[in-house]
C-alpha cells in the first residue's frame, strides 16, 4: 500500500511542529497525600518534520500514547518523548497534558474537608540540545477571593469582593509538587476559596478576607515574590484575573521573570 | 443534475426540525434610544420535513437569510419565517438570532456614560396552528452584583459579594423592549454593574449594594414578581447564577411561570 | 449564629429549583466490559424551595455529595436524591452529572484497539408523585462520519465528508448501558470514527463510508428508528449536527418522540 | 477621597502588564470593498506599572476606549496607545481587539454571493524603544476544506475530507489588508469553503477539492511560502488544525518564521 507521507513535499519547508490535538485519555497523576489520583486529560502530542518529507505518520503518536498508558511523572514523560522521537524519526518531540487535579481542603474554622479541583497543564519538550533531559512547563489555575482595597477605603461600610483566578506557569530545576503552587496562590489573595463552608467558616472567610484587601496587582506581586524565592524555579509567568463584581469585565495583571541559578 | 434530496427516505419518519446552525451575520437591532444599532448575530434557521422526502435543500435557508438582510423586528422575522416555509414547502419554520445588545449606561454618582453589552437571543417560530402570527421567545443575560445576606449578618465586618448572571426568557402578548428586561434584572440584585465607575461611583455602588444584600433566591423572586406584573408577559423562565466569591462553584435558582391573560 | 436563610422571604414565591452548579468531582461509572471506570464529573444539584423560606442552605448539597462519594448507578443516585430531600426538607430533588466515558474500540481492519471518549450526562429527579422511584435522563454525544449523498451523486469523482455529532437524550423503563447508545449512533452514520487507524483501516473506513453516504436527515432517522425499537425506551430526542466541510456552518436535524409502553 | 492606588506597594516589584479584559464594544473596521464595516469587538487593554505604585487606575482604560470611539486602523490605534500612556503615566501600553470580519464571497460556479465571517485579532503595542511607532500583530482564522492524500491514494473510491482552520498570525512592515491573508489561506487548502453553494457549486467544490488533496503539512507550508513571499511580512506563525472526519481528534501543523528585510 502506498506510503504517501514518505514521498517528497511540494514545498520543501521544515515544519516546527506537527501532530495530533485534543485526544482525551484517563490518567494517573502523582499527588502528595495519596501517592496518586485518577483523573482525565486532553492531550496534544507532536514532533518536528524535516523539509523533505511530505507528511507525518499521525497514527504513530496515538500508538506511542497507547503503549505508554502509565501514570504521569517526569520519568514517564521522558520515556514517552523519546519513544515519539524514535517512532517518528524526529529530532524534537513535545507533549501537553491538560487535566483537573483534586485536593482535599479543610474549611478554615470547622475543619470540614471537601474536594477542590484545579485545572492543570504539564508540557514536556525535548530536542537535540537537551542531552536526553526534557524541559518541563507546569501550569495551574487557582481560584482565590479578592476584596477591593479602594472600595474598602472609600466606603462607609462594606467593600466589593469577587472570585479571581491565579494562573501560574513555571519551569523548575527539580521536582516540584503541584500542591506547592496551589499553596503559593492561596496565600496571595484576600482569602482562599473552599468547596464546603459551614456558617462558622463563612464568618471566618468573610472577616479574614475583609481584613486583607488585595488588588490584582497585590496578588500578582505576592505570587511572583514567592515563586522567585522557591528554591527550584528557573522561570515563571503569573497572571491574575479578577472577575470584578461591580463590572462585567475583568481586571488583570501579569508578571514574567527568568531566574538565574548558579 | 440529480436532486437526491427530493428522492424517497429510507426510513420514512417525519423530522421535527432540520436546517443550518451557527451562520454569522451583521445585523441591525431596534433600540429605544437610537432607533436601531449595528451588531452581529449567530443564526440557526430550520423547518420541518415530511416523512417521504429524503432531505432538505439546505442552501435555501441561506438564500432566505440572504434575501432578507434587514433589521430585526417582529414584522421582518414574520416575513423571513413565511419565506422559509414557501421556499422549503414546509409547514413549520423557526429562526434564532443570538447577538450582543449595547446600551449606554450612566454611572450612579457622576453620571459618566459608558457602553454595556448584553447577550440576547430572539427565537421566532410558526406552524399551521399559528394563523400566520409567529410565536416569539426573547432571552437576555444581565450581569448584576449580589452581596450575601448570611455573610453580612454573621460577620463582624464586611460581606462577600460577587457577579451574578440573571437570564430572563419570556414570551409576550405584544411588543416589549429588550431594555425593559434589563431594567427588571438591574432592579433585582444588590446593585447593577457598570462599565465605567469613578471613585465616587464605586463608593456609591459599594454602599448601596451592602445596604441591600440578596441571595440568588431573592433575585430570582424579584425578577419573577416583576415579570408577572408586566402587562404583556404570557410565560417566563428566570435563572440566576451567582459566581460565588468564597467558592469555586455557582449558586443558582430558577422560577418558571405561565401567565393566563383574559 | 443567625440563620438568615430560615427567615421569611420578602417576595413569597415558591422556587422551582435552587442549588449549586459546576462542582467538579472524581467519579466511578459502571462499564459493560470492566465493571467500572474512573472518570471526572461536573455536577449540578438542587431542590425546590417553598414560598415561605428566604433561602436554601447551599452547603448541605455539598455535604450530601461528599457523604455520597460512591460510584454512579441508579441505586446510588436514588440514595443521593433522597438524602438531598431529607437534608433540605424539600419535596423535589435533582442531580446532573456530566462526564467523559471511555471505551476501547478496535480498528475495523487490523483490530488495533484504542480508547475513544464520549461526553455523557445523567440526570436524576424525584418528586412526591414518583413514589420514591426517581426518573432518569441519559445523554451521550457520539461523533460519526458523514459522506454527502448529493455531493457523491452529482460529482464525477469524490464526495465531501465531515465529522458529525449524534446527541442522544433518552428515558428508559429499565437499565440500559451507555454502550448501547454508542452502538446505535455508530451504526447510523456513513462510518464510525476511531482513535487509531492504520493504513489498512483508513482504506476500509474511506471505502465503506463512501459506499454508505448519509445526510443528517438519514442519520437522525436511523437513530430514531433504533431507539423506538429498543425494548426500554419511553422517550427520546436525537439531534445530529454535521460540521460541513464545504461550509463554515453546520447542518442539523432533530427528532423527538414519546413511546407508550403497555 | 483616598487614592489607594497611588500609595506604596507592599511588594515592590514592577508589573509587566495590568489592565482590563473582555470589554465588549461596537467597532468600525476598514474593508477593501466598502471602505469600512460595522462589527463588535472584545477588547483587552493595559499598561505597565512601576514597582513603587500599589495599583493602576483601571477606570482610565475604559475612559481611553470611550473617548476613542472611532474606527479601527493603524493611526487610530496609535492615538489610543499614546492616550493610554498619557492617562496612566505608563511607559508601555497595549490593546487587543478580537472581532468577526465579514466578506462577501461568490460561489465558484454560479457566482451567487453570500457573506462569510472570519475571526480576527489585532494587537498594538508601544514602548519607549518604539519611537512613537507601535508594533502590530494581525491574526485571522480562515476555515478551508482538506481532502486526505493518503486516503485518496490507498482507497478504491473516495477520500475523507473535513473542515480545517488556518490561523495566520503576522507582523508587517506596512499596511496589509485582512483580505490578503484570507486569500492566502483560501489558496492553500484543497478548496475554500463557502456560505452559499448551489448544486453546480457543490459539484465544482467536490471535484476540485478531490483533484487537489492536501495534508495539514501541505497547507501550512503553502501558507508559509506565500507569507514569506509577501512584500511586507517581517514575522509570521501559521497553525493549521484539521478536524479529522475519521477521528474524534485533530491533526495540526505549525510553522513560525522571522523575515529579515533590508
CATH third-level topology of the largest domain in chain A: Urate Oxidase
Indicate the radius of gyration of chain A in whole angstroms: 22 Å
Secondary-structure element order of chain A, N to C: EEHHEEEHEHEHHEE
**SS-based structural class of chain A?**
alpha+beta
Oligomerization state: homotetramer
According to CATH, what is the class of the largest domain in chain A? Answer: Alpha Beta
Proportion in helices of chain A: 25-40%
Number of E-state strands of chain A: 9
Overall outline of chain A: elongated
Q: Greatest contact pair?
A: A-D, 48 and 48 residues
CATH homologous superfamily identity of the largest domain in chain A: Urate Oxidase
Q: What proportion strand of chain A?
A: 35-45%
Taking the alpha carbons of the first and last residues of chain A, their distance comes to 55 Å
Major sheet summary line of chain A: 9 strands, antiparallel
Count of discrete domains of chain A: 2
The CATH architecture of the largest domain in chain A can be given as Roll
Number of helices of chain A: 6
Low-confidence stretches of chain A: none
Mean pLDDT across all amino acids of chain A? 96
Architecture blueprint of SSEs:
Four copies of one chain form a homotetramer.
Chain A: E1 15-31, E2 35-49, H1 59-68, H2 74-88, E3 93-106, E4 113-126, E5 135-147, H3 149-154, E6 161-172, H4 178-186, E7 191-192, H5 199-210, H6 216-229, E8 233-242, E9 250-258
Antiparallel strand pairs in A: 1-2, 2-3, 3-4, 4-5, 5-6, 5-7, 6-8, 8-9
Amino acid at each position: 500500500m502506498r506510503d504517501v507521507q514518505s514521498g517528497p513535499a511540494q514545498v520543501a519547508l521544515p515544519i516546527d511542529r506537527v501532530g495530533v490535538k485534543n485526544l482525551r485519555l484517563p490518567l494517573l497523576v502523582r499527588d502528595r497525600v495519596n501517592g496518586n489520583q485518577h483523573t482525565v486529560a486532553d492531550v496534544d502530542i507532536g514532533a518536528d518534520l524535516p523539509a523533505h518529507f511530505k507528511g507525518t505518520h499521525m497514527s504513530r503518536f496515538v500508538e506511542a500514547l497507547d503503549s505508554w498508558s502509565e501514570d504521569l511523572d517526569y520519568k514517564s514523560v521522558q520515556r514517552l518523548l523519546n519513544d515519539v522521537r524514535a517512532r517518528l524519526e524526529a529530532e524534537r518531540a513535545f507533549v501537553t497534558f491538560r487535566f483537573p487535579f483534586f485536593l482535599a481542603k479543610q474549611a478554615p474554622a470547622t475543619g470540614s474537608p471537601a474536594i477542590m479541583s484545579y485545572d492543570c497543564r504539564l508540557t514536556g519538550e525535548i530536542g537535540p540540545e537537551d542531552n536526553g533531559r526534557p524541559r518541563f512547563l507546569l501550569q495551574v489555575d487557582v481560584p482565590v477571593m479578592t476584596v477591593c482595597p479602594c472600595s474598602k477605603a472609600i466606603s462607609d461600610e462594606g467593600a466589593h469582593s469577587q472570585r479571581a483566578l491565579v494562573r501560574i506557569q513555571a519551569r523548575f530545576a527539580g521536582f516540584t509538587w503541584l500542591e506547592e503552587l496551589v499553596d503559593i496562590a492561596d496565600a496571595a489573595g484576600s482569602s482562599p476559596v473552599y468547596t464546603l463552608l459551614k456558617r462558622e467558616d463563612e464568618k471566618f472567610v468573610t472577616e479574614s478576607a475583609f481584613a486583607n484587601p488585595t488588588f490584582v496587582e497585590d496578588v500578582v506581586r505576592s505570587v511572583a515574590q514567592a515563586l522567585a524565592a522557591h528554591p527550584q524555579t528557573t522561570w515563571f509567568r503569573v497572571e491574575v484575573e479578577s472577575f470584578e463584581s461591580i463590572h462585567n469585565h475583568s481586571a488583570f495583571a501579569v508578571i514574567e521573570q527568568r531566574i538565574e541559578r548558579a
